[in-house]
Design brief:
It holds the Pfam family LysR_substrate. Residues 1-58 form the HTH lysR-type domain. The protein has 313 residues and is an alpha/beta fold. It contains 13 helices and eleven strands. The longest helix is centred in the N-terminal third of the chain and has 27 residues, at 59-85. The N and C termini lie far apart (50 Å).
């Protein structure tokens, strides 16, 4: 028996839908269904009545629910107590963040006056969007820092998460410049020639979905031909700077190249989209250091509502 099975069951109770619960738990629906079946096999009784939509609990499921909630709370309370008992030496605040944010946002944010006063000891796991969510869902980190947009994947909006706004960034389309300082590639060209496109890998569904939204707003079909894929914006940036094509990059990632005259934004504002930078946590108790950080962020959010804490433009 695994604690994750209990959490899967509670997610299913909250959503009453296998697909939605699986999305919130960052696993495929078949894998999620197998885990619920494994829990029922361990209990020795069916907990879910699958003949109805939305699904309902069986009599055994109704008996199991309050005990399951109590056991999950108790396990995390026990973990918190053990961490606190271990003393300050173990009080690391653990983060998972998108690669770009771990490089260009996190260091500046942690050294800002608001954060420096906490003297937080931290560790960082840099990953793609779904891996960040999986780390947060499985309690392998205290916080996840990701981009957020109303039209992005709704994973974080359906699970037991809370979030705060830390800042903003913008996704922009960029090209290398030629010797006269003009874009090497022009999306306004009318000669029908394909433009090499440097894309995010299929498994980075977040920025890929945002880019699809941007492309749908363009006044005519973009003649882009994918020649390279990577889950890392930093990798795409270096490919652009080497002249291999165009790519959408977070402005924080592209800023230095633009200031140095190596990159240029193309397509104007219509080819860009603003994104929020948010910090997410799971509902329930964190370590003493994690709770201290969250209270500090809440306090600053109340004192400075709507303030942009992202990297200065």
């Amino acid at each position: 028996m695994e604690l994750a099975w209990f959490e899967d069951f509670l997610e299913l109770v909250a959503t009453r839908n296998f697909s939605t619960a699986a999305l919130a738990r960052s696993i495929s629906q078949p894998a999620f269904s197998r885990r619920i079946k494994s829990l029922e096999a361990w209990i020795g009784a069916d907990l879910i009545d699958r003949s109805t939509y939305p699904v309902h609990l069986t009599d055994a499921g109704n008996v199991f629910l309050p005990r399951c909630q109590e056991q999950v709370r108790e396990m995390y309370r026990l973990r918190t107590d053990c961490r606190n008992a271990a003393g300050a030496s173990s009080q690391l605040v653990t983060f998972a963040a998108l690669h770009t944010l771990s490089i260009y946002f996190f260091p500046t944010w942690m050294s800002s006056p608001q954060m420096a006063s906490l003297a937080t000891r931290s560790s960082m796991h840099a990953a793609d969007f779904m891996e960040c969510i999986e780390h947060l869902s499985s309690n392998r980190c205290d916080f996840a820092i990701t981009y957020d947009h109303p039209d992005g994947p709704p994973v974080l909006k359906t699970g037991p998460f809370e979030s705060l706004l830390l800042g903003t960034d913008r996704l922009i389309l960029v090209s290398k410049v030629d010797s006269p300082g003009k874009p090497l590639y022009d999306i306004d060209r009318s000669d029908g020639e394909e433009i090499p496109f440097l894309a995010y890998s299929w498994n980075d569904g977040y920025l890929g979905k945002i880019i699809s939204l941007i492309r749908s707003r363009w006044r005519q079909p973009l003649n882009l031909s994918t020649v390279y894929q990577s889950s890392l914006a930093e990798s795409l940036k270096h490919m652009v700077m080497a002249g291999h094509g165009v790519a959408w990059l977070p402005q924080s990632c592209a800023r230095k190249g633009i200031l140095d005259g190596e990159l240029v934004q193309i397509g104007g504002q219509q080819m860009s989209l603003a994104m929020e930078i948010r910090i997410f946590r799971r509902a329930g108790p964190l370590s003493r250091a994690g709770e201290q950080l969250w209270k500090h962020l809440l306090h600053n959010a109340e004192r400075r509502p709507g303030r942009d804490l992202s990297i200065p433009r």
